[in-house]
């Protein structure tokens, strides 16, 4: 009789669950007498284990070979192969692995500041198989969707829940209300700039008036007489006057 075999995963109902232990079993039938065999188990192209077996009986025997596995989420869809040498026969089996949700904490921080008048959108993304159902819980109720818009009226604590048939995981977010001082600072800067501008204009106007009043011109100026003297070109050209006696006048 020809040697043949079957391979199966035992003691479980598909799919496998991440973290549990399972057995891959290969049943070999009609191993010839005095036949030496090498049994190889592969995960993908990687050799996992190797076993040597020799039938010491005088007649064919049946033999079972078992591989224990602990599948992870990245093993979903992995292929395990049983190989029997030197008979050069092999058989493969693909496994399906379900796993609990994992929330992406990188895009969902545990503390979120919120300024008045500026809503913030929170996203709760989770990886899991089956695909998780996302919900948000707070004291006002439950919302079933991946995002949540938080404002100053949002409760202080909100919780994202990712749930599938394997498990449910939570991510709590603390909402901190903050005041936006940017408009106030901008207003103070504007007032300061306006005040400095007024002072500058005031100082400039005083300087301009002072400079204008300090200028004068002598064009078309008329000489003026003072105390009977005529001043010209900055000199005193007054003519000396001599009082004549009456005898000089009659002569």
Textual characterization of the structure:
With 251 residues, the chain is mostly beta strands. Helix content is 15%, strand content 47%. It is built from two helices and 20 strands. Strands 10-17-16-13-14 form a five-stranded mixed β-sheet, with no helix packed on it. It has a four-stranded antiparallel β-sheet with strand order 5-4-7-8, with no helix packed on it. A three-stranded antiparallel β-sheet has the order 1-3-6, with no helix packed on it. β13 (133-138) and β14 form a beta hairpin. The longest helix is centred in the C-terminal third of the chain and has 32 residues, at 182-213. The protein is elongated and about 135 Å long. It comes from Danio rerio.
The gist of it:
This protein has 251 residues and is mainly beta. It contains two helices and 20 strands. The protein has a five-stranded mixed β-sheet, with no helix packed on it. A four-stranded antiparallel β-sheet has the order 5-4-7-8, with no helix packed on it. The chain has a three-stranded antiparallel β-sheet with strand order 1-3-6, with no helix packed on it.
Write out key terms for the chains shown.
mainly beta, elongated, Vascular cell adhesion protein 1 isoform X4, 2 helices, 4-stranded antiparallel β-sheet, 251 residues
């Amino acid at each position: 009789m020809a040697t043949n075999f079957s391979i199966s995963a035992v003691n479980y109902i598909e799919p496998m669950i991440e973290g549990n232990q399972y057995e891959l079993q290969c049943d070999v039938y009609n191993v010839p007498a005095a036949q030496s065999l090498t049994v190889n188990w592969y995960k993908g192209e990687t050799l996992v284990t190797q076993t040597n077996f020799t039938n010491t009986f005088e007649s064919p025997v049946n033999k079972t070979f078992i591989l224990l596995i602990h599948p992870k989420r990245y093993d979903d869809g992995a292929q395990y192969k049983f190989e029997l040498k030197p008979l050069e026969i092999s058989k493969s089996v693909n496994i399906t692995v379900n796993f609990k949700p994992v929330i992406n904490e990188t895009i969902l921080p545990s503390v979120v500041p919120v300024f008045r008048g500026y809503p913030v959108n929170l996203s709760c993304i989770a990886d899991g198989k089956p695909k998780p159902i996302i919900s948000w819980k707070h004291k006002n109720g439950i919302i079933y969707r991946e995002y949540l818009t938080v404002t100053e009226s949002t409760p202080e604590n909100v919780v994202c829940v990712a749930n599938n048939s394997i498990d449910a995981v939570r991510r709590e977010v603390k909402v901190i209300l903050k005041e936006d001082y940017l408009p106030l600072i901008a207003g103070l800067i504007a007032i300061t700039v306006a005040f400095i501008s007024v002072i500058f204009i005031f100082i400039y106007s005083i300087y301009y008036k002072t400079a204008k009043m300090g200028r004068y011109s002598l064009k078309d100026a008329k000489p003026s007489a003072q105390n009977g003297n005529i001043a010209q070109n900055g000199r005193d050209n007054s003519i000396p006057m001599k009082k004549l006696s009456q005898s000089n006048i009659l002569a």
